[in-house]
Task: structure prediction
Amino acid sequence: MNIAIKNPFVITVITLLLFMGILKLPINTTIQETFHLTIQQSDNISRLLKNLVIIILAIYAIKKLKIVELSGLSKHIKLQNKFLILIPLYLVIIGVLSLLGTDLSSISAIDFILLSLAMLSVGFVEEFIFRGILQSVFLKKYSHRKNGILISIFLPAALFGGLHLLSLDMSNIAASIGQAVYAFFIGAAFGAISLKTNKLVPLAIIHGLVDIVFSINTLLDDGAMAGEIEQQDIGQAIGSMLVVLPLFVVGLFIIRKISLESVQEKIALSSKI
Result:
């Protein structure tokens, strides 16, 4: 059975509604009370379980929409320009350096493992949804048009950034807007890299690693949750955006190097399989 819906905007709405609906499932408290866990442990387990469901559904949708080759999950297309995958690793390095001098000895092994698995799953979910599904359906529909590749990469990236504003905190508005902007920067760059390298999983792993290193410090505060935005003033928010800006600029150069022919070949190959 093939999915008959072909309009990328309809697919986007359905995908995001399912994505957000699953994330909103209230299972945290049940897990905490059933297994007598801390709030952080139950939150990370809940996040991991929900994300596993989303990943399975995303893979199913990618196959049914016939966008496996465009998504970067194809076994038939080899990894190319592998050095590009290494570029976002500078964010992981910055995250590690930011932890230097921080006493992490109070963090238990189980808390670190749960956080790591949860954050790694976040990387896979966000890449499979926004690059794997949304970017691919827009490319399939609009890549042949003028600036079609650029638009197809930017639209999902903008949605990725915009979703971070759903939890807009007016008392911390600088950080909220900053997070939305650098999420767009990362989304656009990752979209370009996945399309140029033909592979999505390595980027999902790097995305997860970035989330891990920037979330470890939450384990030092019982009241903190991974993914929450830290209080920032305008200067700090601008600084966060500037850290990611080079990745975005590199992404723009990569987009210019993506040929329409290579995209059309992937579309044709997806239709045959």
User: Anything to note?
Assistant: The first helix runs from residue 8 to 23. The radius of gyration is 19 Å. The chain has a mean pLDDT of 93. The chain has one domain: 8-272.
